[in-house]
Design goal:
It is a single chain. By secondary structure, the protein is α/β, with parallel strands linked by helices. The chain has two domains: 2-244 and 457-470, Rossmann fold, CATH 3.40.50.2000; 267-454, Glycogen Phosphorylase B (Rossmann fold). It is 36% helix and 20% strand. It has helices at 18-23, 26-32, 47-51, 105-122, 140-146, 198-205, 214-219, 228-234, 267-282, 306-315, 331-343, 356-365, 381-387, 398-403, 422-437, 439-451, 456-470; strands at residues 2-6, 36-42, 54-64, 67-76, 84-89, 129-133, 158-162, 191-192, 195-196, 208-211, 238-240, 290-297, 322-329, 348-352, 368-371, 391-395, 415-417. It is elongated. Bound molecules: adenosine-5'-diphosphate. The site of adenosine-5'-diphosphate has 18 residues, from α1, β12, β13 and α12. Adenosine-5'-diphosphate binds at residues 17-19, 21, 294-296, 326-328, 354-356, 359, 378-381.
Length: 474
Amino acid sequence: MKIFHLSAECYPVAKVGGLADVVGSLPKYQNMAGLQAAVVMPYYDRKFTRENEFDIVFNAATLLDTKRLYFEILKEKTNKLGFELFLVRIPGLLDRENVYSYPDEREQFIAFQLAFLDWISYSQQTPDIIHCHDHHSGLVPFLLYHSKLYRRLANTPTVFTIHNGQYHGAFGWEHLSYLPEIDLTQTGLLDWAGGINPLASAVKCCWRYTTVSPTYLHELSINSNGLEYLFWIESAKGYGIINGIDTEVWNPKTDTMIAGNFTSKSIAKGKQVNKDALCERFGLDPNKPLFTFIGRLVIEKGADLLPEAIELSLMDPAEEASFLILGSGDTEMETALLELKEKYPGRYNVFIGYDEALAHLIYAGADFLLMPSRVEPCGLNQLYSLRYGTMPLVRSTGGLIDSVIDFGDEGGYGIRFNNASVADINHSVSRACALYQNTVLLQQLRKRMMALDFSWDRSAKEYINLYESLNPTI
Ligand code: ADP
């Protein structure tokens, strides 16, 4: 069964967030289960593309309105990622360093999708499933079924996975001419709220859509940045499948990015070695409970609540917590977090930026991970922290509900709170500080966390079952 995963990100080629982790691991596990899954993504000018070798397997020109764009399909030579990796290179448009935020982002991702379709169409390939991820490849289902150019592929089943329903990639009707040879009686399938909405179009046109956790599937009809009604009417073809993690990349026993490897048997010593390294680097006290936050500094993640919540805790003479933040995003939030650094040296530090290796060390060395998210489709941070015996403190939303049980409940191992508020964060930090004093219980809970199985094995199977239900020829 030949599956093409289409995505803007894929670890380790180019990563901005969890989308990359999923697209960099799910196909690998699908291949281990006997499928033939490949990833197709834009060619960016990054370390991975500069340092690896590729074959040019196809080249042609596609038309973006009246503009002729030359493109190449490059294939990574060794398949060392556990899947075939194809990169769409469009000189001058896609071969830049960053994944997002260019003023012509719309043209970039439309051209990426057209080049992909031209390639499989002209090279006479017949994929069993085309699996699109997020709005950057959201126009593919519409084009497959309603553009004359791709008629040969019109029976190809499509699956669309929503990693984040807040971002739609919407644009105005004046750009309709970017979509070639389409059936103009079907343009309603592109529309939402008076514009062309790639996320909405994908949900309407795909054969099945999935969300990255079961709870998020239901939440989309309550909160999806204006698409609530759409999700409500399309819910019959929606499936919630929780993300897995790549247990080879995220393994405290073998991780080369941390200060000392450990297993659940050597957890106390192992975590302390990593905590010591972390505290030395950031001038913190390794004997105090260490709380962390890793992620994008945006409202969605509740990062705006952190400065006040952290300061309240640091000012409380009864509490001993120290904090280390890793992230970047909103400049106001970055500034507020940097300001605390001057005020509380020795108890608080922050690293503004993106650092994959530091993230691994923090998951290994911190005691507690804060996730006060307002929206969390799945969340991978809590899964990584559990794997490294770091207790997640999470707001009860989306995938956090599906993956974290409060330690006060039967079989629990984390801390859950209801509101994305300073008060709820503080209350949870206090609970964690009290737990930190109970070393025996903390130790038991850490072992319980590390024994949990969030590998892809189960979820990859659910995707395979879904594919098989769509393509009975397999
Ligand atoms: P998102 O909504 O950002 O995709 P996820 O929890 O699904 O959130 O995934 C976030 C991923 O990005 C995790 O692998 C996390 O470790 C990583 N990450 C986020 N911010 C940073 C950062 N500043 N430095 C290193 N890794 C980061």
